[in-house]
Amino acid sequence: MLKEKLLKLRFQKSKVLFFALFGLLSFVCGYSAQAGTSNLETFQCENGKYGFKNTKTQEIVIECKYDYAWSFYSEGLSLVKLNDKWGFINKTGEAVIPFEYDYALPFIGGIAPVKFNDKWGFINITNEALIPFKYDSVGFFFDSLAGVKLNDKWGYINIEDEVVIPFEYDDTKFFYKSELAAVKLNDKWGFIAKTGKVIIPFKYDGADSFEVLAPVKFNDKWGFIDMVGRAVIPFEYDEARPFSSGKALVRLKGKGWFCINRQGNRVGCE
User: Fold this and answer.
1) In sequence order, what are the residues at sequence separation of 6 or more whose Cβ sits closer than 8 angstroms to the Cβ of residue 106?
2) This prediction's pTM
3) Contact 89, 65 (CB under 8 A)
């Protein structure tokens, strides 16, 4: 019985992780369509290592030797981990960007966040450092802005490493498909414009990025608001993720995780 419960819990966590990563790369990155055109997919071998196989023939194209591997989502490159370091390979398995980073995230629009010597910066596809390794944490660039953390506070910079929105927030989300981003201040979340002006007040216990609607947490329940702060989908969920291609993953106690559309109706997650 205990083993069955553990397996069920592991499955639920894997399902949530899958949709979190899918949301990151389709909603946040906006590269899911490009990812779908790849004829290679990552898989884990019996030795615990990761490689790539042809989606049609199931033939192994790149041997299982990586500690972890992302799919070929953008720029024709895959982010992979080898001997505790991260780098990028092409579809022949050639290391295009060497395994020298402590951590990294996929390329978006030709720019990737990478961590080196315990600090974060940004590189291009030729491995040139576009922004120095000086930040404690970073997000992706969207509409030429990225959230970055310095001296325990978050702000936004542009591609020239100029501060556009000051370092005054406890946390930040992305400006993606929206003129608004969720930011945290004094333990409450609100939404600001790219000018730094507060558009939706700091009153939520949790918040995430907009795709027409944004998930927010209020009185210990999650719902969805529009860009003027009106509650469109009621605060009734125990957890909620941002919308991606018109669907959002939500969780209800006793019912687990499932997907809803922008009208709040339950739909398939495919």
Assistant:
1) 25, 29, 31, 70, 73, 74, 79, 112
2) 0.82
3) no
Beta bridge partners of 85: 82
Nearest to 106 by CA among 133, 81, 143: 81
Residues with pLDDT less than 70, the chain: 1-38
On whether the CB atoms of residues 183 and 154 are closer than 8 A, the answer is: yes
Which residues have C-beta within 8 Å of that of residue 238, sequence separation ≥ 6? 221, 222, 251, 252, 253
Residue type, 210: F
What's the CA gap between 70 and 93, in Å, rounded?
A: 13
Sequence length of the chain is 270
CA distance 266 to 249: 10
> Quick one: tokens of 10?
């592991």
Bridge partners (DSSP) of residue 150 are 153
Cβ contact 156:147 at 8 Å: yes
The secondary structure of the chain in percent helix, strand, coil, rounded to multiples of 5, reads 10, 50, 35
Mind listing the pLDDT tens digit for each residue in 61-85?
999 999 999 988 778 899 999 999 9
